[in-house]
Amino acid sequence: MLSFDKTLKKTFRITPEMFEQSSSICKKVGLVFPEYVRYLIAQDIRRTAREIPSQISETEKKELSKILVDVKKGNIRSARDIESIIQRFVY
Q1: pLDDT bracket for residue 17 (50, 70, 90)
Q2: Measured distance between the N- and C-terminal CA atoms of the chain, rounded to whole angstroms
Q3: How far apart are CA 30 and CA 21, in angstroms?
Q4: 3-class SS shares of the chain: helix, strand, coil, % to 5
Q5: Sign of the torsion formed by the C-alpha atoms of 27, 30, 36 and 41
Q6: What span, in angstroms and rounded, lies between the C-alpha atoms of 67 and 36?
């Protein structure tokens, strides 16, 4: 959970069109603009935290490539094979 005990105040510029479109989204989801911006930043941080690390070994690249080829060809791979590769990146 995010804590706002210590906060920073920043100013940024957007076009009037961007503001109008984002304000429309805010109304639809029931947020005011600052809450919407914080929500977007939090979503981006979560997404970035889940991305695969940039340092993937050659062995892992080869194994991932094999899995992708098999899946594209319609060949079913063992869930354990796929899970073991994914767990290396998640944990």
Answers
A1: very high
A2: 20
A3: 14
A4: 65, 0, 35
A5: negative
A6: 38
- Tell me which of 64 and 76 has the higher pLDDT: 64
pLDDT (0 to 100) of residue 67: 77
| Amino acid of residue 41 | I
Could you tell me if 29 and 36 are in contact, meaning their C-beta atoms sit under 8 angstroms apart?
Answer: yes
**Paired tokens of 68:** 């992708």
- 3-class DSSP assignment, residue 90: helix
Which residue type, as a one-letter code, is found at position 71? V
At position 74, the amino acid (one-letter code) is: G
pLDDT, mean of residues 34-50: 84
User: Does residue 43 surpass a pLDDT of 70?
Assistant: yes
Q: Is this model's pTM higher than 0.70 or not? A: no
